TrEMBL record:
Similarity annotation: Belongs to the trans-sulfuration enzymes family.
Annotated Pfam families: Cys_Met_Meta_PP
NCBIfam families attached to this UniProt entry: PRK07811.1
Protein name per UniProt: Cystathionine gamma-synthase
Names of the cofactor(s): pyridoxal 5'-phosphate
C-alpha cells in the first residue's frame, strides 16, 4: 500500500555491472525518489521529474543543465529572493547575466530579450510577495520566438491550481518544501520538464545528468515525506484557497489596511488572467498597512496563530515581514519589497480563529507596537 523508504546508499549487483532492477547507487537512482519523481511528472503533465535536496538546489541544477557562460536570462523581478541571489551572486560569476522585468508587462519582457544571447526566461506566478500574475502563454510565445526556454516557478500555485507546461512552459520548478510537502517538516525541490530538445540535447537528459553529476539529490526519507504530502495536496489547497479568500475580503474592509494583494479579489489587476489560467487563487495574501513600516512590523509580531516565520505552504498559518526576512537579499535595490507589506501564508485552521488572530494583529498595528518591539 505504501512505497517503502529505501534507506540505502548502494545496491547489490547480480554480476559486474549487471544491475538488479536498474539501481546501482542512490545518487543516480533510488526507488523511493524515483516514485516521487514519477508522481511529480504526472501531476505537472510533464515528460520527466527530478527531485532535489531543496528548491534552490533544483533551480541551480536546471540553470547548470541548460546554460553556458555568456548566456542571458530574462528574470521576473518580483520573485523569490533566493532565486535572485542564486542567479546574480552564484551564476553571475560564471558569466550569466540577467535582466529583471515586470512580470505583468509582456512588452517589457519582449524588449528585455537579447537576440542570440537570451537562453532562458524565468517567471514566478503568482509572484512572491506581490502576488502579481504573469501570462504564462504570452511569456512562452516570447521565449520560443527567441529560441529560449521558459521556466515557471509553480511553488505558489502547485499543479492542483495551475499546470504551466500545459500553457507552453518548457520546465517547472518547485520548492517542495512548501505546499507539496505541506507540513513544514521537510526541505525539497523539483524540476519537471516537457519533452523538448535544447541545443541538441533532450532537456530531461540534461537535467538528469546534472542531478547525478552535481549530486544535490533528495534523500529517501525526504521523498517519502513529500510524497505523503501529495496525498492531501488537493484537500489542503481547497482549504488554503477558501481561507485566504475570506481573509483577503475581510482585510479589505479594515481601515488599518491600505491595500490587500490577492489575485482572487476582483480589484486585483491580474484577477481575470489568474481565473483564466489557473483553477484557484492560492493561499498567500499580502497586505500593506496604512500605518507604514511601524504598523506592519507590529502586525507581524503580534499574532499567535500566524507564527512569525519565513517559508510558506504548510498547514499552519505563518506571517512574514518580507522586506527584511524572505527578501533581505534584495534590500536597498530596485527589487526591494515595500516596507509596509506583510505576507501571510494562510493555513488550514478554522477561518474564524484566523480572523480573530488577525484582529489581534491589527489592534497592535494601530498602536504601532509589536510583541517584541517594547523590549
Ligand atoms: C522557498 C521557495 C524557493 C526556494 O526553495 P527552498 O526549498 O527553500 O530551497 C523557490 N521558489 C519559491 C517561490 C519559494 O517560495
Amino acid at each position: 500500500m505504501i512505497p517503502p523508504i529505501y534507506q540505502t546508499s548502494t545496491f547489490v549487483q547480480d554480476g559486474i555491472n549487471v544491475l538488479r532492477n536498474g539501481h546501482e547507487y542512490s545518487r543516480g537512482s533510488n526507488p523511493t525518489r524515483n516514485g516521487f519523481e514519477t508522481q511529480l511528472a504526472a501531476l505537472e503533465a510533464g515528460h520527466a521529474g527530478f527531485a532535489f535536496a531543496s528548491g534552490i538546489a533544483a533551480e541551480d541544477a536546471l540553470l547548470r543543465a541548460v546554460l553556458a557562460p555568456g548566456d542571458h536570462i530574462v528574470l521576473g523581478a518580483d520573485g523569490y529572493g533566493g532565486t535572485n541571489r542564486l542567479v546574480n551572486d552564484l551564476h553571475g560569476k560564471w558569466g550569466i547575466s540577467n535582466t529583471p522585468v515586470d512580470i505583468t508587462d509582456l512588452d517589457t519582457v519582449e524588449a528585455a530579450v537579447q537576440s542570440g544571447k537570451t537562453a532562458l526566461l524565468w517567471v514566478e506566478t503568482p509572484s512572491n510577495p506581490l502576488l502579481g500574475i504573469a501570462d504564462v502563454a504570452g511569456w512562452a510565445r516570447i521565449a520560443h520566438t527567441a529560441g529560449a526556454l521558459l521556466v515557471v516557478d509553480n511553488t505558489f500555485a502547485t499543479p492542483f491550481l495551475q499546470r504551466p507546461l500545459d500553457l507552453g512552459a518548457d520546465a517547472v520548478v518547485h520548492s517542495t518544501t512548501k505546499y507539496i510537502g505541506g507540513h513544514s517538516d521537510v526541505l525539497g525541490g523539483a524540476v519537471i520538464v516537457a519533452k523538448k530538445e535544447f541545443r541538441g540535447q533532450e532537456l530531461a537528459q540534461a537535467v538528469g545528468f546534472q542531478q547525478f553529476a552535481g549530486g544535490a539529490v533528495a534523500g529517501p526519507q525526504d521523498c517519502f515525506l513529500a510524497a505523503r504530502g501529495l496525498k492531501t495536496l488537493d484537500l489542503r489547497m481547497e482549504r488554503h484557497c477558501s481561507n485566504a479568500a475570506v481573509i483577503a475580503r475581510w482585510l479589505g474592509t479594515r481601515e488599518e489596511v491600505e491595500n490587500v494583494l490577492y489575485p482572487g479579489l476582483k480589484t486585483h489587476p491580474g484577477h481575470l488572467l489568474a481565473k483564466a489560467q489557473s483553477g484557484g487563487f492560492g493561499g498567500i495574501v499580502s497586505v500593506q498597512l496604512a500605518g507604514g513600516e511601524a504598523a506592519a512590523r507590529a502586525f507581524a509580531e503580534s499574532m499567535e496563530l500566524f507564527a512569525l516565520s519565513v517559508s510558506l505552504g504548510g498547514v499552519e498559518s505563518l506571517v512574514c515581514y518580507a522586506a527584511e526576512m524572505t527578501h533581505a537579499s534584495v534590500i536597498d535595490t530596485p527589487l526591494a519589497v515595500p516596507r509596509n507589506l506583510v505576507r501571510l501564508s494562510v493555513g488550514i485552521e478554522q477561518v474564524g480563529d484566523l480572523v480573530a488572530d488577525l484582529e489581534l494583529g491589527l489592534s497592535a498595528a494601530r498602536r504601532g507596537l509589536g510583541r517584541y518591539a517594547a523590549a
